[in-house]
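Quick question, first post here. What does this chain look like in 3D?
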Amino acid sequence: MKRFFGNKNFTVGFILSAIVVIVALVSLTWTPYDGNKMSARERLQGPSWHHPLGTDQYGRDTLSRVMVGAVNSIIVGLVTVAIGLSAGVLLGLAAAYYGKLVDESIMRFSDFLFGFPAVLTAILITSILGPSMINAMLAIGIFYIPVFARLTRAVAMTVWEREFIAAARACGISEWVITWRHVMPNILSPLLIQGTIQFAVAILAEAGLSYLGLGTQPPAASWGRMLNEAQTFMSMSPWMAIFPGLAIAWAVLGFNLLGDGLRDTLDPKMVRAR
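> Answer (accepted):
Ran it through. Tokens below.
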């Protein structure tokens, strides 16, 4: 832990990310107000003692909705990274293990998926299944599959060439046992780093999709959806856009710095460079 917190990027990223997670956990049991409760008398109020971040066009408390939105953002990050990581690692390991035709097929499949960014994939999926947070997570998760597949393949191929792998083969250990017992532990660090960085990207992507109306649907709280609703009232109530925008920037910056700190600490090349 001393080695991790000795890195400034990791320390700052950990603090920022921890605050987002704490806010999300607190919102599961308590928020200042019901995030979906409307009040015509309190609509478009500025920040005050009763509403620290003001209210929106329906009189809903912005602070409560920002807190609830943190839960949705974290759920999206976890689910999308889990989809991309699980499928991508399996495909990457298969490509590194079998090589030749299997490798070529998986890499061309990855190139095909790369040709459809998350937004275009979301438009395609939501046009068939309808807009929702689940479909947005599915779209972002599919886009992450080639990211993790390429990374897993590249790192696994270098591990397969190491001497201890040859020694394990000489001892008669099966290839798949070698894969899970020796290869996987040696590729966990880059996968963890990439997963943390992609977590931040997923939060930003979900906010963008919700802003376009393809992600979280009303009345559920989403930072991107809050920005979409705020654009009509920018001249009257700028705080409606400022605070959700700051929440997005805070979370993305925190998880990006956390990923950079993990890379600086866990990547042997970075350690030697320092």
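The longest helix spans residues 62-98.
The radius of gyration is 22 Å.
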